[in-house]
């Protein structure tokens, strides 16, 4: 695959540890990335569970593409590490990397290749069993059957984007990383790609980036907002008043937290950051007292209700795009 990404100053990620009690699919821990002295990403941590759709949102130059390159394992971090299914992404071989599909900002398409041949090439690169059948499935899923024999340079932007997504899913990865999958599309093409991404959720966990808020709201379960290389917010894309964002000093036990009276559901975003949904009719302050009485060192407790747009504006306040 062509890749013009310059190598950043890097440090090899540390050994994997096997603590996967709640079985996250992807764990990124305190990633940073420096390009020739310029810090593009700092202290980026993210946990993704199977079947989740996570949106990465931020103004131009916020560090979204950099974060996705590190999460997809196409570039090593300067600091931190990424684990996929409990194993260090960079230390492990193809077997684990095959669990990941990646659509870069500029899809690596060879203009003179035909769609089916290109996808077969991608499937073989990843040692996909029954490659021909896998290509047929990806063609059907991405609505590409009618253009399977066409050269890539004869396709419209929308169809090229579909081919980019098809190469990311042809080997049936558990995690798909999509960098701005809808950029440059007209409204009709946009609708097609949205429908496709919705169809893929569930079977695959998806991380996708955009600088457009409604895009993330339409597709993602939760959002991570980046600004100037740092995470400035993460939480659900729906901001119902009965969801609470809580931070702890020590990682709570999931079943103990979820089993407290008045709590309908507790979901970890990272080890110390949890989303808690209250049972209908429960007053947040009653549950707050229960949670604070536990041994987890409650640090922050923020009932939802703030519209995501306000959160985005607040989080990126006073900062424009970064070149
Ligand atoms: N290869 C590189 N060499 C040097 N600096 C880089 C490189 N790639 C990105 N940067 C810088 O790192 C910062 C983050 O860039 P990145 O592309 O990750 O942001 P982004 O949020 O994806 O932006 P956009 O939405 O415009 O694509 C920017 O300041 C950018 O100029």
Automatic annotation (TrEMBL):
Pfam families: ABC_tran (PF00005). GO terms for molecular function: ATP binding; ATP hydrolysis activity. Residues 26-253 form the ABC transporter domain. SMART domains: AAA. Gene3D superfamilies: P-loop containing nucleotide triphosphate hydrolases. Residues 1-21 are annotated as: Disordered. It comes from the Bacteria. Keywords: ATP-binding, Nucleotide-binding, Transport. InterPro entries: AAA+_ATPase, ABC_transporter-like_ATP-bd, P-loop_NTPase. Belongs to the ABC transporter superfamily. PANTHER family: ABC TRANSPORTER, ATP-BINDING PROTEIN. This is ABC-2 type transport system ATP-binding protein.
């Amino acid at each position: 695959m062509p890749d013009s990404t310059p190598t950043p100053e890097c440090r090899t990620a540390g050994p994997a540890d096997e603590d996967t009690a709640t079985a996250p699919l992807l764990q990124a821990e305190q990633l940073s990335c420096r390009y020739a002295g310029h810090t593009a990403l700092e202290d980026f941590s993210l946990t993704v569970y199977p079947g989740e759709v996570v949106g990465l949102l931020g103004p131009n130059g916020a560090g979204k593409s950099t974060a996705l390159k590190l999460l997809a394992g196409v570039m090593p971090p300067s600091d931190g590490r990424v684990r996929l299914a409990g194993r260090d992404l960079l230390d492990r071989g193809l077997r684990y990397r095959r669990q990941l599909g990646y659509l870069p900002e500029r899809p690596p398409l060879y203009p003179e290749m035909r769609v089916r041949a290109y996808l077969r090439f991608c499937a073989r690169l990843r040692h996909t069993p029954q490659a021909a059948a896998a290509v047929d499935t990806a063609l059907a899923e991405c609505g590409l059957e009618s253009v399977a024999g066409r050269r890539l340079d004869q396709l419209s932007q929308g169809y090229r984007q579909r081919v980019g997504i098809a190469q990311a899913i042809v080997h049936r990865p558990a995690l798909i990383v999509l960098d701005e999958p809808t950029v440059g599309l007209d409204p009709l093409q946009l609708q097609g790609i949205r429908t496709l991404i919705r169809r893929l959720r569930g079977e695959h966990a998806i991380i996708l980036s955009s600088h457009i808020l409604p895009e993330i709201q339409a597709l993602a379960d939760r959002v991570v907002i980046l600004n100037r290389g740092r995470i400035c917010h993460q939480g659900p894309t729906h901001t119902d008043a009965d969801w609470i964002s809580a931070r702890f000093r020590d990682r709570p036990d999931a079943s103990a937290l979820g089993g407290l009276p008045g709590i309908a559901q507790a979901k970890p975003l990272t080890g110390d950051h949890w989303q808690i949904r209250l049972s209908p009719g429960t007053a947040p302050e009653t549950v707050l007292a229960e949670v604070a009485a536990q041994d987890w060192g409650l640090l922050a407790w923020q009932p939802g209700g703030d519209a995501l747009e306000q959160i985005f504006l607040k989080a990126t306040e006073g900062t424009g795009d970064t070149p």
